[in-house]
Amino acid sequence: SNPTSSRRAPFIVIEGLDRSGKTTQTSKLAQRLEGSGVDTKLVKFPDRTTPIGKMIDSYLRSASDLDDHAVHLLFSANRWELAPTIERLLTAGTTVICDRYAFSGIAFSASKVDAEGAPLLPFEWCRSPDVGLPAPDLVLFFDITPEKAKERGGYGEERYEKEEMQLRVRKAFHRIAEEMGEDEKVGRGATRWVTVDAGRGMDEVERDVWTLVEPLVRGGVTGPVAKLWT
Ligand code: NYM
């Protein structure tokens, strides 16, 4: 009955392509929030420290092979195993900043193709295991062109870090972005999706991120944590 008692901290996800500066900006943001006296927890997916995360890590480093369906479900399970912790933190007033989430899960898996270039996993199949996860209040999608990404020294050595794959991943993210902005039913729900031009200088991007995040953190959020895509 006391409306203020249901106030909680916001759940903020930073998504984006490889080489988009996402991880740098995520840790800058977390530091800046902490520095402003905001109780903050930085979460990263995949969380490579859990037993499931170790299987994912080994797969990404090509130290092991897994069926495409199986590894997709491991990525999702890795989020589900942390979901109760995320909910608890938000309710307790801790702002959660998350580096990658279910949107990466769909974008990367749905971009895997066979030798003929046909998709290995349907888009909707990729979404299903993540339906019902804690929904972010805000997603900042770090978009960057492959040319800019290349200027930044190219991709690393892990699985998926190849140009054709990254082009498909970018398209998949754009499809998700459209959905999150326009389709109320399967898309946005309680989540606000903002695309950030990550091809600009680090300080410019940092300023934009702060402008988007600061009011949400200062104001807090009313009501329980929503469920993604329900
Ligand atoms: N990735 C990440 C997926 O394929 N599915 C997922 O659900 C998530 C969270 O793992 N190339 C991919 C994206 C990256 C790789 O991420 C490792 P990072 O942020 O480089 O540790």
End-to-end separation: 26 Å
Order of helices and strands: EHEHHHEHHEHHEH
Q: Which range does the strand content fall in?
A: 5-15%
Shape, principal axes of CA atoms = globular
- Count of DSSP strands: 5
Strand order of the largest sheet: 2-3-1-4-5
Give the number of helices.
9
Largest sheet: 5 strands, parallel
Classify the helix fraction into a percent range.
Answer: 40-55%
Q: Quickly give the structural class.
A: alpha/beta
As a whole number of angstroms, the C-alpha radius of gyration is 17 Å
**What is the assembly state of the chains in this entry?**
single chain
For the residues shown, what is the average pLDDT? 93
| Low-confidence blocks of residues | none
**What small molecules are bound in this structure?**
3'-deoxy-3'-aminothymidine monophosphate
InterPro entries: P-loop_NTPase, Thymidylate_kin-like_dom, Thymidylate_kin_CS, Thymidylate_kinase
Domain Thymidylate kinase-like: 14-208
Keywords: ATP-binding, Kinase, Nucleotide biosynthesis, Nucleotide-binding, Transferase
EC number: 2.7.4.9
Secondary structure layout:
Blueprint: E1 11-16, H1 22-35, E2 40-44, H2 51-60, H3 68-80, H4 83-91, E3 95-99, H5 102-109, H6 123-127, E4 138-143, H7 146-151, H8 163-182, E5 192-197, H9 202-219
Helix pairs in contact: 1-9, 2-3, 5-8
Bound molecules: 3'-deoxy-3'-aminothymidine monophosphate.
InterPro entries: P-loop_NTPase (IPR027417), Thymidylate_kin-like_dom (IPR039430), Thymidylate_kin_CS (IPR018095), Thymidylate_kinase (IPR018094)
Protein name: Thymidylate kinase
GO molecular function: ATP binding; dTMP kinase activity; nucleoside diphosphate kinase activity
